[in-house]
Amino acid sequence: MKKILKLKKDTRKNLITYGMIILAFLIVRFLSASGNISSAFRGQLVPICVYIVMAVSLNLTVGILGELSLGHAGFMSLGAFTGVIAAIILQGSVSNPLRLAIAMVLGAVIAGIAGLVVGVPALRLRGDYLAIVTLAFGEIIKNIINTLYVGIGENGFRISMVNAESLNLGERGTVIMNGPMGAVGIPKLATFASGFILIMVTLFIVLNLQNSRSGRAIMAVRDNRIAAESVGISVTRYKLMAFIISATLAGAAGALYALNFSTVVARKFDFNTSILILVFVVLGGMGNIRGSIIAATVLTVLPELLRAFNNYRMLLYAVILILVMLVSNNEQLKNMTKKFKGFFKIKRPSDLKGGTARE
Amino acid sequence: MSSRLLKTPMVPFPSRAIIPARDLDKPPILEVSRLGIDFGGLAAVDDFSIIIGRTEIAGLIGPNGAGKTTVFNLLTKVYQPSSGAILLDGKDTSGMNTVQINKAGIARTFQNIRLFSSLTVEDNVRIGLHNHLNSNVFFDIFRLPGYWKSERQAHQMTLELLSIFGMEHMIHYKAGSLPYGAQRRLEIVRALATKPKLLLLDEPAAGMNPSETEELMRNIIEIRDALGIAILLIEHDMKLVMGICEGIAVLNYGRIIAKGTAEEIQTNDEVIEAYLGEKKEA
Ligand SMILES: Nc1ncnc2c1ncn2[C@@H]1O[C@H](COP(=O)(O)OP(=O)(O)OP(=O)(O)O)[C@@H](O)[C@H]1O
Ligand SMILES: [Mg+2]
Q1: What gap in Å lies between CA A245 and CA A235, rounded to an integer?
Q2: Any CB–CB contact under 8 A between B112 and chain A?
Q3: Contact B123 A219 (CB under 8 A)
């Protein structure tokens, strides 16, 4: 205990965050073993873990890097469908936990590559272009996946954009993705334990990054781009670093999410989902990792808790959201509004100017 | 103090420009020739030439809007010059960007303070040390030995740098919450953390009271003496400029109207007129 008190403030804060997650995991485990958890809530466990990872990873882009992303669900979607394809292809050849791990890693890698492709053009520009580009990215990914037919059969792995028949899978073939019907016949590999591990890995990456040379460079870019460049920090490099890590984690979360259901459609990962995750981040506090965890958990559980109110459920949800916003009418929220204002403002070269005001 | 400096002999180099005699045996740190930039037809800086010695404290003065800050923005490539050449330590800097300029040896402070205000004093200095620390993102995330070594080094160097201004006790304060004078000093520390050969200070004494300014003058000389670097500063406080600057250039409407030592500048008719003219308008 004495040792913990002696640790640096940041380290102590991080340990509390890890401890909180471990404690929550153990409590749920215990309640579940003693039969004290409703099946409805049990079904929510993996999605809660996924949304926590989504919120924490988006916080890396929005809170720590200070760039607005409106398409985080797009990366989740890529991870989800990549993960499903990997899991079905590997059916029978490796053990289930390993299959889940491979599916998540592949989902993460593909989402990370997409992050690079989206980030390179958008983040090299000055100004809030990332918001528009990610918004478009999310929509494009959704529409592409909606027209994809994927399967494995006697001719091996096949992709088509016409229809399922054109895949020519033969008698014993399996359709993995069926256009607008989404992925079907998904093996349910996701478990609460794997969700817990993914959260811990995400926290490990994001918190360690935040308290390091690389993380400080990212925050320097956020706080003052011109000053960061003046001390020799390559702005594009660190923006890309944060954005790609953020996309990668979203990909892993997407794979875990999809492998928790028997079917998944691309529409699930639309603009509304991106905004929902952004709401978790804003309510939890920009750059506040523990806040993101709490906001994601509460706001995922809340609609279920309000089920008793039937038709008034979403109305109550909205009222509670507004109340929380009013109560937490704080720095972070104001920063967010500023960010949105900046987004719609036309940048003038005079913004760069040394300033002539006597200070 | 100031009298000691004012007696530094200034010698022509190579012909019209003057630098301190002690810097003559080494090539100058900065040679700028005919630098210029237009902002939509308006020549904010025009035909700007200057030479600065290795260990010189030089001053750039002029009325409001004369183009002083713009010169700093040109030297650090915040703006790309539309004409002219900048040789830093004998090397041509054309085509370099702000980041490369810093790596090549120029660090600066800003007239309108630009700290990383949500971060601590320590973080601000450690960010300045960025290119002198050996960790990388892989070491950082997995907390490998390279991370710990780099963090220890950073802490040590941060304390040393802050001790220039006796600010070690402020290490955990948020930069944005510091009093004005301390913010200006922190910006200097952050700039020094990048280990520059030439330090550019844009109105370092702005907002400081007379005793703070006097201390700052001593600090600037100490920094130059301890690190052996050159310093070019913009300042409206004439006591500071005349007290510590060896060579001074006067800018008006984007052009240099006089260059010389403090005495020469103070008795220059064109300079007097430029400043009186400003007073009349104001
Ligand atoms: N990015 C820009 N776009 C257009 N005009 C600019 C820009 N930056 C500076 N200027 C103009 O160039 C001129 C010089 O400005 P600068 O800030 O360099 O003056 P200064 O000498 O530093 O003045 P002060 O003593 O008030 O700081 C001014 O007329 C200013 O309005
Ligand atoms: Mg200025």
Answers
A1: 16
A2: yes
A3: yes
Nearest residue to A228 via CA among A239, A241, A212: A239
Q: What is the pTM of this model?
A: 0.90
Which range of residues forms the domain containing residue B208?
1-105+196-282
Domain A41-289 adopts which CATH fold? Answer: ABC transporter involved in vitamin B12 uptake, BtuC (1.10.3470)
- Residues in contact with A84: Cβ distance below 8 Å, sequence separation at least 6, in sequence order: A103, A176, A177, A183, A186, A255, A258, A259, A264
A68 close to A131: Cβ distance less than 8 angstroms: yes
Residue of B38, B116, B187, B202 to mutate when probing chain A, most A C-beta within 10 A: B116
3-state secondary structure of A259: coil
Instruction: Please answer yes or no on whether A214 and B140 come within 8 Å at the CB atom.
Output: yes
- Interface mutation target, options A7, A205, A218, A230, chain B, most CBs of B under 10 Å: A230
Q: Kindly give the pairing relationship between strand A156-160 and strand B91-92.
A: unpaired
ipTM of the complex: 0.92
Q: Domain total for chain B?
A: 2
Query: Is it true that the peptide bond before B28 is cis, omega within 30 degrees of 0?
Result: no
pLDDT digits (tens, 9 = 90+) for B29-73: 999 999 999 998 889 999 999 999 999 999 999 999 999 999 999
Residue owning tokens 């153990």: A26
- What's chain A's length in residues? 359
Same domain, B31 and B139: no
Q: How does DSSP classify residue A258? A: H
